[in-house]
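Handoff note, outgoing to incoming analyst
You'll be picking up this chain. Sequence as last confirmed:
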Amino acid sequence: MGMAASQARFLGLTARMNNIEYEGQQINQQRTALSNKSASYYSDLLGMSVPTAPSVEEYTQTVYTFNDGALTNQITSLIADNANPGTYKVSYIKNWTDDFSIVAASPSIITKNDAGTEFKIGATKLYKLNKKDDNNINAADYAKTARDDEYWQSLSDDQRKNLLKEEKAYLDLLRNTYGANADFYVRYVQNTSTGEYEAVFYNEKDIKPTGGTGGPVYDERNNTQSFVPAYKVGSAQRVEEIKGVAGCELEQDSTGRYINIKIDGKTYALSTNTVTDQDAYEDAMNQYEYDKALYDQSIEEINAKIEIIQAEDKNLELRLKQLDTEHNAVSNEKDAVEKVIEKAVEGGFKTFG
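Most recent structure output, in case you need it:
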């Protein structure tokens, strides 16, 4: 190899080494960036809060109840009464069954006459509930000609008079629920098992045409197009909350459980029940399942990103090893060419020495 060729080869190898070193620096920078990104993802993993499943105990509480005659009372709050040391302010809920309540009955299709002044269910005519109080009921009101339904005709005059009083009580009860000016129709339905008659009520606004919007709709055969709601007297659960009764006294047993309560001078035995708010617990469990799904999804996404980074880093590492091998080869060749040049220079100096 001539001197010029050796020098050209040396310069080419030098340039190649510079390129290899530059590419290696670039790869190292990329690997550093990937390492920083990977560290950030691992930091995210460490910073994530693992959802915790709710415990039933969190939604379970001890409930104290006491009976006052037919009423069951559940204590909702016990607060120390600072104005009366050693006593408490007590709030509780009274629960009882009201046997004289308005409850839903089976709805019916109503049929009207052309004028819209009379109404029937099947062949049974509906009558307006009596509005008169006891003092204003007279013989004409309960005369045999006053009604023509089967139940009315089966009653004596005294029984009819009592029925009119009952109807006034029914109307007052219905108006307490549906408005002071509400009027109601009634029919009496015989119980096939007992043979007794039961009053069934219909709100006038649900059956009487108004001639405008909002009233009942009748078809061409004078039947209501939908079932009309009905009501009857029955049993219903009632709830009343009593708040902040002051000066109440409590007695505990050796375990600290309350066993007696004294309210307004009367002492009642306390019963202890453990109650779980199942709806709240299920809501919390549903929220946990949702949060857990999001958490698992986030973990999977971050792990997938880390795997991609690791794969990219592995490729860069392999390329770096290739460059290192190539760098060593070029370096060795460069050293050899450099020695050739040095010998050529030394030979030149001897020739001209």
